[in-house]
Specification:
Blueprint (H helix, E strand, L loop, with lengths): L2 E8 L4 E6 L4 E5 L15 E9 L2 E11 L4 H4 L4 H23 L6 H19 L1
Antiparallel strand pairs: 1-2, 1-4, 2-3, 4-5
Helix pairs in contact: 2-3
GO molecular function: nucleic acid binding
InterPro entries: CSD (IPR011129), CSP_DNA-bd (IPR002059), NA-bd_OB-fold (IPR012340)
Pfam family, one: CSD
Length: 127
Amino acid sequence: MPTGRVKWFSLEKGFGFISSDEGDDVFLPAASLPSGVTSVKPGTKLEFGVADGRRGPQALSVTIVEAPPSLAAGARINPDDLAAIIEDAIKILDRVGNGLRHGRHPSSNDAERLGKVLRGIADQIES
């Protein structure tokens, strides 16, 4: 299987490009990413299959071989600030929980924002 590194990837656009080790640019659709992976950072080493798409080579069955080191993981938030963020998240979750008890689901925008906040908190706690 060919290998290469992510040149760029846009979660909003749903695609990006891989610079293959052979020197070609390969289209990387979000649907080709491994299950549970929604985005990849530039520099991530990938292994992938290739098919001819409408606009050239397209990656299929992508596997992440090596992720680039995260600079953000090394920067921890001040514990007092993290505690305040967690307290705010608890208030938001309580509001969402009360709404769900009354049959109201959060809007897609609110749910997406809450997911990002929770993932950010998890990353800080794990670092």
